[in-house]
Automatic annotation (TrEMBL):
Protein name: D-alanine--D-alanine ligase
Gene source species: Archangium lansingense
Location relative to the cell: Cytoplasm
Catalysed reaction, written as an equation: 2 D-alanine + ATP = D-alanyl-D-alanine + ADP + phosphate + H(+)
Gene: ddl
Assigned keywords, A-Z: ATP-binding, Cell shape, Cell wall biogenesis/degradation, Cytoplasm, Ligase, Nucleotide-binding, Peptidoglycan synthesis
Length: 314
């Protein structure tokens, strides 16, 4: 937490940064609208800023003193905006430049997790589509595999591939998106998500998607067919293990504020960390707010708590 009290923050101009230039713009617009409404309802002086190339000028013109980052994806979740705010000496919510950059790049994040002994699925990374296609018959694990771009979020461009042909099609699609191509061994199990707030494990929610996995459509276009179970109905030892893994990931990257991690729990009780989200979705129906609500923290209270943690990290 920062040195800001609620009274101090009420006297400051708070810029809610949303929208942005990434493939997750639409998701960010929802997050920004929800956060802005919540903070205004609590009496904060809020200005909405739809982030574009003119962001430095907008921040200066609006005299923003504290930034609530409600961005997702490239240029917002990857350390770019965080670096700009550091240079402008504007305290901001969430993780700093390094944690944001590492968290956004799935390959580098995996390397950190492995170095810290955090279980994560075996993988190969390829710089180009040609390299990934050439390795179709020499992967160190068999099909099915998961193919994903290393620097996209919200499950954009993620494919579960059961055959070689599906793999080649997925590689072609992933190669058009941001970052290198990550190919993971597919781990079958229950999809659970763990939240962390202010360096404390908040709890675990289970996602039961009507689709094959919790992809972009299941997250944002499911029409209510996805089920969310909090607390996740797990044996106590497995529930605690997921909490431990998510907190370990948060600490390994030296995250600040909040994070939400995606985890697979196998039938035998093994826990595998898939990835970490350093700026998770923040609508009232998003997973981190659902977890927080289960712990007695309502949505406006969660937004206020994150705002109180706004700091410069460099």
């Amino acid at each position: 937490m920062s040195g800001f009290s609620k009274d101090e923050l009420k006297r400051k101009r708070v810029g809610v940064l949303f929208g942005g230039l990434s493939s997750e713009r639409e998701v960010s617009l929802r997050t920004g609208a929800a956060v802005s409404k919540a903070l205004r309802g609590l009496g904060y002086d809020v200005v909405d800023i739809d982030v574009g190339k003119d962001l430095p000028a907008r921040l200066a013109a609006e005299k923003v003193e504290v930034a609530f980052i409600a961005l997702h994806g490239r240029y917002g979740e990857d350390g770019c905006v965080q670096g700009l705010l550091e240079c402008m000496f504007i305290p901001y919510t969430g993780s700093g430049v390094m944690a944001s950059s590492l968290g956004m790049d799935k390959v580098f994040a995996k390397q950190v997790f492995i170095a810290h002994g955090i279980p994560t699925p075996p993988y190969r990374a390829f710089r180009t589509g040609d390299e990934a296609r050439a390795a179709a018959d020499s992967l160190p694990f068999g099909f099915p595999v998961v193919v994903k771009p290393s620097r996209e979020g919200s499950s954009v461009g993620v494919f579960i591939c059961k055959t070689r042909d599906e793999y080649l099609t997925a590689v072609e699609a992933a190669s058009k998106l941001a970052g290198s191509i990550l190919v993971e061994q597919y781990i079958k199990g229950r999809e659970v998500q763990g939240g962390v707030l202010d360096n404390e494990a908040l709890g675990v929610i289970e996602v039961v998607a009507a689709r094959e996995f919790y992809d972009y459509q299941a997250k944002y276009q499911s029409g209510g067919t996805t089920q969310y179970l909090f607390p996740a109905p797990l044996p106590p030892d497995q529930y605690e293990r997921v909490n431990q893994v998510c907190l370990a990931a948060h600490r390994a990257l030296e995250c600040s504020g909040c994070s939400r991690s995606d985890v697979i729990l196998t039938p035998s009780g093994e826990v595998f960390l898939l990835e970490i989200n350093t700026l998770p979705g923040m609508t009232e129906s998003s997973l981190l707010p659902k977890i927080a609500a289960g712990r007695g923290i309502d949505f406006p209270g969660l937004c206020e708590r994150l705002l109180q943690g706004a700091t410069l990290k460099a």
